Amino acid sequence: MECVPPSLPDLPGLSLPVCGVSENARLSHAEDMSTLSALSNDLAAAVERAGRAVVAVHGRQHMPSSGVLWRPNIVVTAEHALKREEEITVTLPDGRNVAATLAGRDAGTDLAVLKLDATDAGAAELGDGAGLKPGHVVIALGRSSERGVNASLGVISGVSGAWRTWRSGHVDQLVRLDVALYPGFSGGPLVDVEGRVLGINTSGLSRVMPVAIPISTVNRVVQDLLEKGRVARGYLGLGMHPVRLPDGRSGVIVIDVQPDGPAGQAGVLIGDVLLHLNGSPVTDTDDVHANLGPASVGRRLKATLVRGGENKEIEITVGERPKGER
């Protein structure tokens, strides 16, 4: 039923609604606006809170990357955004520029750690990274020298198990983001709606989507880089490719052997087909890499392989991956 403008006279026997918004509708609209305003203020407060630990890292030309004060005077940033290892400076949240020393970098997890010259810089408040679920509202932060803190709002699009990056790093969880990472955002924090850090954002580990490196991985890598300057990874010195044998068994065929590598020294040859490592089936190269974590260096692996149609067993002592090898 159409409403009658208030200027029309009343018609006997006919009841028509009066144009305009009812008092209940006006109250409901006011409540909605109040809720939206409160949410907006809460998000701005979360950005301000987390922004106190977000820095700009000057380790490349033209544009800085972002970083997080993970511990007092310790900054975590994205490894791929560091194009030099000396003459690095950091812009702190209060606008000061301080010198930084590279403590270590790990291309596998795209993390680098910087030590700041003695300052009174604090540290970020860490949240519950283990509780991330698809649909959680999150904020990505970055800092530039001129514009200060910048924010991008989105959600967690997916969370899955541990994964091996294309740079051979081990990340505890694959946290996929439906968040825009603007230029300079890599190395900055992913934060929850209360301003607590959930991980480090990067565009350097996936060619199709931004991801966040979870807290547990960051803590592990930071500890290794501060103590040893590197993250040790197991190394066999083999090039491999999945293959299926005529009898139906699956394995990986050796297509390259580094003569001075662990497998080469143990007697592995090009053309060998690797079937088992320490009794576990090998059907893909990921099955091999699963045995080459940081704790594997120095460990002996019993390899079962096929050579010339016959089974053969070889014991390989896992080495440490040389710098630059994948």
Describe the protein in words.
- The chain is an alpha+beta fold.
- It has two domains: 23-229, Thrombin, subunit H (Beta Barrel); 234-320, PDZ domain (Pdz3 Domain).
- Helix content is 16%, strand content 37%.
- It contains four helices and 22 strands.
- It has helices at residues 23-51, 215-228, 262-266, 285-289, and strands at residues 54-58, 65-71, 74-78, 88-91, 97-106, 111-116, 137-144, 148-160, 163-164, 170-171, 174-178, 189-191, 197-202, 211-214, 234-235, 238-244, 250-257, 273-277, 280-281, 300-307, 310-317, 319-320.
- The protein has a six-stranded antiparallel β-barrel. The protein has a six-stranded antiparallel beta barrel with strand order 7-8-11-14-13-12. Strands 16, 17, 18, 19, 20 and 21 form a six-stranded antiparallel β-sheet that branches.
- A hairpin with a 2-residue loop joins β2 (65-71) and β3.
- The mean pLDDT is 90.
At CATH level 2, the architecture of the largest domain is Beta Barrel
Number of strands: 22
CATH class of the largest domain: Mainly Beta
**How far apart are the first and last residues' alpha carbons, in Å?**
72 Å
| Number of separate structural domains | 2
Mean pLDDT value: 90
- The rounded Rg comes to 28 Å
Overall form: elongated
Low-confidence stretches: none
Compact description:
The protein has 4 helices and 22 strands. By secondary structure, it is an alpha+beta fold.
